[in-house]
Amino acid sequence: MKNTILAAAALAAITSTAALAQDYSLTPTYGSYSLSAGFMPDPSELQITAGGTLDAASVGCAGTIANAPDARLNWGGGRMTIGARSNVDTTLVVNGPDGQWYCSDDVNGLNPALVFSASGQYDIWVGVYQGNNAPATLYVTEY
């Protein structure tokens, strides 16, 4: 009986954690975009509100983020950087075309950035390390 109760409690904990995970199948809050090598203007920028109510630790990252991606980038391939700038400490969470989760924090001061080269779909969240939501600029650059 005791083992059954412990097993049920463990299953409930796993199920509740999975329900809090970021959902890359949702429609991105700030839209979907396509870019290919040589895009102009460079950087391509998008004004967003960073942060959310979910702990990005559910995918191994830092900060709080929204459930739906902030943006979806369909990338044509070649080296590019995805980053964010803000007046607060921001983090970056990306689900790459390979299905893996990528995290960044404090690369350029308190701002995150990640370098990729594979073509495909990138679902992007900009988080806030501590505190409330904050205005931020999400950018993609080849420089």
From TrEMBL:
Top-level lineage group: Bacteria
Keywords: Signal
Signal peptide range in chain numbering: 1-21
Protein name: Peptidase S1
